[in-house]
Amino acid sequence: RGLRHVLWSQDRERTEFVQYLVQHGRIRAKDVPHLVGKNHDRFIRLWAELVTLGPGPCIVTCVEDVTQDKRRERQLRDLVTLPLGSQGSLEPINALVQLAETVTKADAVIVCERLNDDERCQILTCHMWRSSERGATLPVPGTSFEGAEALKAVAPADAQIQDLPFTADARVIGGLHLYWWHQRPPLDKDEEMLLSLIAMRLGLELKRLQQDRVIAELNANLEATVQRRTRRLLVLNNELKTFAYSISHDIRAPLRSIHGFVELLREALADMATSQQHELLDRVMAASKRMETLV
What we know:
Layout (H helix, E strand, L loop, with lengths): L1 H6 L3 H14 L1 E6 L12 E10 L2 E10 L1 H15 L9 H14 L3 E7 L5 E9 L15 E3 L13 E9 L2 E10 L8 H81 L5 H20 L1
Antiparallel strand pairs: 1-2, 2-3, 4-5, 4-8, 5-6, 7-8
């Protein structure tokens, strides 16, 4: 009766289990979703076998609490399947911070970025899940400070702190800082490995964020260059139009003079000009008109 209430919240679930066992005879290391019980935060792995003892059959059952294993599997799956962020987005970093809190049970987490090769850093994101009785106050994102030691000032004197640096191209580019206001819970090897993977992924996301900034700056510079050159081209085009208008006006005046002199010359020569001379005058008039058309 005691096992019945631990494993099954309803009689129907127990009946289905017994029917399965009668049909197959045994169950080996089977995780059955509905054998979780009332507390759905727990995960049970079940072994069972139908045996004959005394007057009739009975069921020998062994259960194992695999809650921690299942949680680690889920956490690792969340880490692996976390999508890359869009350009300039902090969403993956915030999701990784949440995952780090789930693994370590930290009271607060800060992710910082080193601004240059010296000790100057800037807060990217910070989260506090449980407030301290001694009034710990986290810095707001964007706050700059000198050196990782400055971050310790935000925590009470007896708080426990763990720092995990991010590296890229053989230099430190930032860090993950975990705070426990009281006793830091122990982590096993799997949890320590998962925390290291989280820190590694945070480093990659920070590197991606820095590259996004470089790309955004290059795009902004390119856009500014295009706009500057476009404005210069418009100025040159206007100057060219002004020059063309001026040249056109200056050339039309001599052409009109040529037309007038040719007409006067025709009238003056009248019948005295030979046919060859008239042809030359016609050619001069045609050439000047063609020139006027081009202008």
